[in-house]
């Protein structure tokens, strides 16, 4: 079930009314209700994979109870390893088995040796990369003794399957989200109004920005051999805004719907295309994943408190794993490698974080240069993210680097104008919580005029309905 469909427009209000009326008096029944509607929400994709969510929840809940009783360090470590093996085993089986089998066979074929290895004929469960990482945060933090094990099985199952962020995040930590299922949720007007703003802004990003950019980007990428370098460059730009509007739009809707139910999810995007270097970009893009890798991979490897050589290796490991997390294809690995290469010099030589001064109408020349250079690197890397093969990516970039880059691009000018105006609005909102955070406008009439105008724009200018890109991960 997609957020931007009629199905969800009927499903969520009904869920919300029942949540705040019938099930309000009992926290346990309210949590049980959330588990049921979350499983129902997921079943719209494929009910057969509900067993994986159930099994993942049950295994990590049981491991959590056992870890809470275990006092011997070796026992706790074995329980953690069991959780890692189970969750990463699920990911490997459904997402990476065929990739590694194919890569293994192709590697040995180069040396004249052939292997007839069988692949698995299975579908990739929607959201498996998200909810497995979410449950892993629970067992890892238990092992580190940063949280206590929960004995409330209903609350834990609700934490794992919570439908607004089940299939595409944000990837929540048990330390942040799980306690929210253990205390009564209150109906706050201000929080609900801001939740509605987030939903409206998210729908605009998805249905106006992302879906319209998708129409242009898809046509260019599918016929890239016949296009000029300038057209291909702008095709990559449109894809950059497609994936940004798509994923950040989903996150905004997920956070907004959660607020309407009394939950606070972590912020996942913070105006990433205003970043002034690649390290700054990863502090603003998919923040729930980047901080997950920081806390559970980068820091355990030694973080930055190691030699420069080891630091470089640590950074590359994190970005290579991050690339592989996004998809079982070498194109994603190279995408991660590119980002790692450009993050390394920032970590080594830039001593302080870059910030934008408040109250500044226009960026300085240096800020414009930094933002443009960073965005260019991100756009080039997105080519590997979008294409099917590494060969396609290099052919695409080779055409961009040709003299035809200087020709007039074959793209609609209205699309460029839309993106320019949107980025101007993001610049003005850069210090606010989200792009539609306009509570500072004192005139209620003006605020509502903006809301209704956005609704009209969404209804009149929405592109063809496109699936959310990150569902495939």
Q: What would your notes on this structure say?
A:
The protein is mainly alpha-helical and 473 residues long. It folds into two domains: 6-185, no CATH class; 190-276 and 354-472, no CATH class. The protein contains 17 helices and no strands. It has helices at residues 6-20, 27-46, 50-69, 73-110, 128-143, 153-161, 174-177, 189-222, 229-260, 278-282, 287-298, 308-326, 330-349, 365-386, 390-400, 413-428, 444-461. The two termini are 16 Å apart. The mean pLDDT is 90.
Annotate the secondary structure layout:
Blueprint: H1 6-20, H2 27-46, H3 50-69, H4 73-110, H5 128-143, H6 153-161, H7 174-177, H8 189-222, H9 229-260, H10 278-282, H11 287-298, H12 308-326, H13 330-349, H14 365-386, H15 390-400, H16 413-428, H17 444-461
Helix pairs in contact: 2-6, 3-4, 3-5, 3-6, 4-5, 8-9, 8-17, 9-14, 9-15, 11-12, 12-13, 13-14, 14-15
- Taking pLDDT < 50 over at least 5 consecutive residues as the criterion, the unreliable ranges are none
Which sequence of SSEs, written as H and E, runs from N to C? Answer: HHHHHHHHHHHHHHHHH
Please state roughly what percent of the residues sit in beta strands, choosing from under 5%, 5-15%, 15-25%, 25-35%, 35-45% or over 45%: under 5%
**Total number of helical segments?**
17
> Can you tell me the overall shape?
globular
| Domains, number | 2
Largest sheet: none
Q: Oligomeric form of this entry?
A: single chain
Please state the structural category: mainly alpha
| Record field, number of beta strands | 0
Mean pLDDT: 90
What is the helix content? 55-70%
First and last CA, distance: 16 Å
**CA gyration radius, whole angstroms:** 23 Å
